[in-house]
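Example 3.2
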Amino acid sequence: MSFHQRITRKTNCGIGFVSEPERLSLIHDPSCAAAIWRRKPLTSFQNWIDAQAPEKLPNARMILPPERVTNALTNLADLSGLSNCIERNLLVEDVSALAQIFANIMQVAYLRFRLQVVSSNACHKFHIDSLKARLICTYRGNGTQYGISENGTNPYEISDLPTGSVMIMRGTLWPENPMTGLLHRSPPIEGTGETRLVLVLDPIEDLDEELDENILH
């Protein structure tokens, strides 16, 4: 059983839409500010994760090599009380696969791994991250919002990254940045009762500079 069903590929100005995970390497194209893998989670998986109590969702931040993600996430799920089932295995396998794909694309041995349970307006202002690149995937709740800003203000047209879809976007530290004005934010959910589960991966190029993080070797 796979986590997703395939979605047709398309393209847009400054943003590349792909139908295969390997094509996320499109982020290296000089004209690409973000690469998006649009996919639709299996209904059985989505129903399962949406039904979980927020306190049972794994929530952690650490630095680790991609090959350690499976064990780390399995331990997190055990500690949080998330029941061991097919759907939990799908979550672990998918997160682990994305970590390996992203590490390969960015050619790094370590990642900053964050699986975050969000129930407030975290990072609700449109911005660009102060790092080289970032992978984002929302497994539960509304996905990341993004749009093109012409003068630094909020985008006139806002798009929503579908739940389960994957975005790799460039940050301000990318060696070359196309002048697309691409900004993103977490969707405002304050007062709605919604709980999101968001995966965020950042590449770590110099491990010695990351002394304040929980590092797994």
